[in-house]
Write a structure and sequence with these properties.
With about 475 residues, the protein is α/β, with parallel strands linked by helices. It contains 14 helices and 16 strands. The longest helix is centred in the middle third of the chain and has 26 residues, at about 225-250. Bound molecules: 6-O-phosphono-beta-D-glucopyranose. 6-O-phosphono-beta-D-glucopyranose (BG6) binds near residues 150, 218 and 237. 6-O-phosphono-beta-D-glucopyranose (BG6) binds near residues 218 and 237.
Length: about 475
């Protein structure tokens, strides 16, 4: 079947790595299967773990079967569309990759559209980009797109340097910086929820909103990622990117148009409007041993590969203020952490209380209405508001009006499916622009330069006690503590 998607060769650097096996190949194969895009996706995996095409295809087949793809797609797609190039790091290695690209394109009659996908550890980004540029893989008869996984730099300065290397060889319109949270259906829905529903958007401002809370919690611990995580920490791993992306979509102004740059312009404006974050408004935590889902789990310092006495933070909670007309005076609480009680990404928008306290609410101090948007899991939306408890004196109860994706729609696609499809069709909306990534680093750099000492929290709790208290200073409470 013909498709509108142009046939594209994905050159995946790090092609035998964990991300490729677990996410990228399954996502591509699922698009191929769902949309019947057999002619669209071709892959040249570049790595050093495997010797030849056939050994790689064997590995790819296993990854795809594990991911639940049908045997038919696996066989058909692996056998015809996947290739491997090893030893790119050796002298002449990248020239050989370029030669193989040309050979694959000739064999399949491809128009020369390429996506160079960097699925390698970040320290390798500059070297690979230089090598790609030097052998001329940044230019082609069709389009060439550079796809870069997170983290993009580890400070304002290093992100700036990486942007320089990128722009030496690629125009910004060719660059697709991945933040996989933007590929999540529920994250994209934030724009629709806000700008297609005048009811909510008219309440979405300082006159009616009292506070906004964004939580990205995980029950998982470090897993086997000490080498990366012990250097990065929760701030660089989550706040600078995923949490900030959600924040900008919650807080941005309506874009002039629904195109990539109009949306990204508005997101950057949010980051630039945030006031410097006060040191006392940031709490770092580090998980100690504890119990999650009835299982006893070790503390961060006992995890394999973590440096002795490491002060890396595994949770961050902070308060910030957006100094613009819409949000002036409204506190935003952001929070992320590993070994929290559950996996939960949630936005809570609390509304102001009525100007006159006509009704008493038994057992609850905070009685503002709230919109709770759950981005994962159990994706959905609740509007919490007060009703009179029947057959009682004027006692109010807060009840939710509830919508769940699973009840209305089929299963949500994986974020990578959305992102890979957008790379092929050339839509940059869900990718992070260079000024955006630098604005986020710029905002947080003072904290990264002068970080607080992490306080311990038991695995299975929502962070250290100081984090729990953070909203109290302004009379607020985290959603799970508020009794609503
Ligand atoms: C990654 C972080 O970017 O996002 C991980 O490096 C984290 O530490 C993961 O676990 C969370 O993603 P998701 O999609 O499972 O919420």
């Amino acid at each position: 079947m013909m498709t509108d998607a142009p046939a594209t060769l994905f050159v995946i650097v790090g092609g035998a790595g964990d991300l490729t096996g677990r996410k990228l190949l399954p996502a591509i194969a699922r698009i191929v299967e769902d949309k019947n895009w057999h002619e669209t996706f071709h892959v040249l995996a570049v790595g050093r773990a495997v010797k030849d095409d056939e050994t790689y295809r064997e590995w790819a087949r296993k990854s795809l079967m594990l991911a639940g793809l049908s045997a038919e797609t696996v066989r058909a797609w692996c056998d015809t569309s996947i290739y491997y190039a090893s030893n790119a790091e050796e002298s002449g290695g990248w020239a050989a990759v370029a030669g193989k690209v040309a050979a694959i394109e000739a064999k399949h009659g491809l128009p020369g559209n390429r996506a160079i996908y960097l699925a390698v550890p970040p320290r390798a980004f500059p070297t690979v980009i230089e090598a790609v540029g030097q052998v001329g893989l940044n230019k082609s008869p069709g389009f060439t797109r550079l796809v870069i996984e997170k983290p993009f730099g580890k400070s304002l300065e290093s992100a700036g340097r990486l942007n320089e290397v990128v722009h030496r060889w690629f125009e910004e319109s060719q660059v697709y910086r991945i933040d996989h949270y933007l590929g999540k259906e529920t994250v994209q829905n934030l724009l629709v929820f806000r700008f297609a529903n005048a009811l909510f958007e008219s309440a979405w401002n300082r006159s009616l909103v009292r506070s906004v809370e964004i939580t990205v919690g995980e029950h998982l611990g470090l897993e086997t990622r000490a080498g990366y995580y012990d250097q990065a920490g929760a701030f660089r791993d989550m706040i600078q990117n995923h949490v900030s992306q959600v924040l900008t979509l919650v807080a941005m102004e309506p874009p002039v148009k629904l195109d990539a740059d109009s949306i990204r312009d508005e997101k950057v404006k949010v980051l630039r409007s945030i006031l410097p974050i006060a040191v006392e408004d940031v709490v770092y935590g580090q998980y100690a041993g504890g119990v999650i889902e009835d299982e006893t789990v070790p503390g961060y310092l006992e995890e394999p590969g973590v440096a002795e006495g490491s002060t890396t933070e595994t949770s961050v909670s902070l308060r910030l203020h957006i100094d613009n007309w819409r949000w002036q005076g409204v506190p935003f609480y952001l929070r992320t952490g590993k070994r929290f009680p559950e996996r939960l990404t949630q936005i809570v928008v609390r509304f102001r209380e009525p100007p006159v306290a006509l009704f008493e609410v038994a057992g609850s101090e905070v009685n503002s209405d709230a919109i709770v948007i759950t981005l994962q899991p159990n994706e959905g939306f609740e509007l919490h508001f007060d009703v009179k408890a029947p057959a009682e004196d004027m006692r109010l109860e807060t009840v939710p009006l509830d919508f769940r994706y699973a009840e209305e729609f089929r299963a949500l696609p994986d974020a990578y499916e959305t992102l890979l499809e957008d790379i092929v069709i050339g839509d940059q909306t869900l990718f992070v622009r260079s000024d955006e990534v630098e604005a986020a680093w710029g905002l947080y750099q003072p904290i990264l330069d002068n970080p607080p000492m992490p306080e311990p929290y038991a695995a299975g709790t929502w962070g250290p006690p100081s984090s729990q208290k953070l909203p109290h200073a302004t009379g607020d409470a985290w959603w799970e503590d508020s009794g609503d």
